[in-house]
Write a structure and sequence with these properties.
Oligomer: single chain
CATH architecture: 2-Layer Sandwich
Low-confidence stretches: none
Mean pLDDT: 94
CATH class: Alpha Beta
Strand order of the largest sheet: 1-2-3-8-6-7
Number of helices: 3
Number of domains: 1
CATH topology: 60s Ribosomal Protein L30, Chain: A
Shape: globular
Strand content: 25-35%
Helix content: 25-40%
Length: about 130
Amino acid sequence: MRERVRDGGGFGEVAAYSRAVRYGPHVAVSGTAPLAEGRVLHPGDSFLQAQAAIQKALDAAAELGAVRDDVVRTRLLLAPECDWKDAARAHAEAFAGVDPANTTYYVGGLIPEGALVEVELDAIVEPR
C-alpha cells in the first residue's frame, strides 16, 4: 500500500507530486526547501536554510514512520550562491552517526526564489 504526505503548499497539487511517499519499507522525500507559510526562511544563510530544509524533510519522513536513523541516502541541491561548506556542516550535524550515502549538487537555481538549498532523502523502515 502506498501512503503519501502532502504539504499543502500548492505546488504539489499543480505539479502532481507528494512531499513524501512510503511504499512498503521505502520512504522517499521530495526536494524540500526551507519554507514556512510560503516564504523562504533565513534569507542568505546557507547553514540555517540547510538546517531548516533537513528538519522539514525529516518531519515529512516521520509522518510515514521513518526516523533519522532510518535514512540511507540524502541529496543536497545547492543554488549557485549557496556556501557548500555551510550546507555540509548542517548535514553533518543532522546525520552524524547515521552517515547516509549522499550526493551534493550545484544546480542552476531553485524554486522558490531565494532558496539556497533543497534536501531530498530516502529511508528504509521496518514493515508495518
